[in-house]
Amino acid sequence: MRNMLLIDEMKANLPITAHASRDLSKTLIANGYDVTPEKELKILNVVESGEEGGIACFLDQPENFVVSLTLLRVGPDHPLHDKILSYQKKRIRRIFRSKGLGSKRMKQIFQQEK
Questions:
Q1: 43: alpha, beta or left, given left = phi > 0 and alpha = psi -120 to 50?
Q2: Could you give the angle at the alpha carbon of 35 between the alpha carbons of 65 and 9, nearest 5°?
Q3: R_g of the chain computed on alpha carbons
Q4: Domains of the chain: which residue ranges?
Q5: CA-to-CA distance for 67 and 24, rounded, in angstroms?
Q6: Do the Cβ atoms of 22 and 31 come closer than 8 Å?
């Protein structure tokens, strides 16, 4: 699978500090979890969850929580930042195309996250 190289690199760098995207944070807060985009999370493990799920990340909080790598933000100082960001953009582009959505909306989402 094409994601295995990134997964192997991520596993070699665990734990990885990350932050929830705004969308993930809104969903978690709505479900009673105190996870703001500013709150530091730790990725404890990563696995390939198939074409539908992509790279799944096991987080330290909320307890026993698994989320798609596309919903997390890794700091620009992390050695895998560029590779992770590239994966996220490609994955989101693929998802948008499968749903018939355009690249303009995708750019808006990435601009909101900055």
A1: beta
A2: 55
A3: 14
A4: 4-112
A5: 9
A6: no
